[in-house]
Amino acid sequence: MTIIQRLNANSSFKAVGGFASAAIVLFGIAPAALSDFRLSLLAKFLCFAIVAVGIGLAWGRGGMLTLGQGVFFGIGAYIMAMHMQMADAAKAHEDVPEFMSIAGISELPSYWQPFASAPVAILGILVLPAAVAAVLGFGVFKRRVKGAYFAILSQALAAALAILLTGQQTIGGFTGLSDFKTFFGFRLDDPVNRRMLFFIAAGALLVVVAVARQLMNSRYGELLVAVRDQEERVRFLGYDPANIKIVAYVVAAFFAGIAGALFTPIVGIISPADIGVVPSIAFLIGVAIGGRTTLLGPVLGAIGVAWAQTTLSENFPSGWTYIQGALFIVVVGFLPAGLVGLWPMARQLGERFRPAKPEGPSVGAGAAIVASVMSTGAAADDEVKVQA
Q: What is the pLDDT of residue 377?
């Protein structure tokens, strides 16, 4: 076996090579080849990819159809937006953010005040989405709610959160929060800082993919797949499938909260329209198209679908929704493994239609034939001598 074959056989070397290639593309090629506008768009797509990694873990490996990831995405996004609004107000020596002054609100709401501190805001982004998912998961999975019922419940939660935020004027209402000027002290109108946001999103995506890979290849990952395929057998073996599902659901929410927190300064606005039912389904479509059971399929699917939406919407504003729906139907109906599964299918078809090689006698077979002929000739000579 050659050195190259040994490296290919070792999954750890493959992973290192893959992460190195991704780092070169994200930190070297993309900043050099894309304009500032396109790089900012790619940073936005990377946020969607972070959410998709969590959905791939929960849905692709755990079988949980999560239609409400917009809830956890929105929690992280709004916490970051609230901190940025209060930081801008403090820099301008104002008691409340500008949109509150316009709406006639002169006192900062009590639930805003803790997030004025940067450490508390970061802690909230990391903890609150996971805590909410833990509470919801405990209440749902311990009662053995699964399948379509869980999907409908998660979607209803996303719709409820969007409706709740729409009616809250102290958090921006229907228009949401926007017009951010700084990000932890760095001005957002500086192109250098905008590029730094892209690098932060790229680094976060690589870390999230590494964590997901470790979980998938661990003993827990095997249990998660077993729960997806044979939940009752896993329970018979002494494991609680609810606890296994809760962990995957919490990890997916943790990833979504980070993605939402990065989305807010990158895009410059967060509103109920970004976290409701439609965005949650869009996250799921990207994962399904890319390939939900693989590690990189959700990432590539989320980025590809977001890029196609941006590109095609510029040329066909009213046709992208139909294109997206048709693509989703084709993938679900004919490519259950997603677009990532096209390459294995092509290899199988190539092997099936490859012409068979002509079979000929091998060296061992030829030697056996020669030995048989020689032994037959020797026996005939002995017989002639005996008769004489």
A: 47
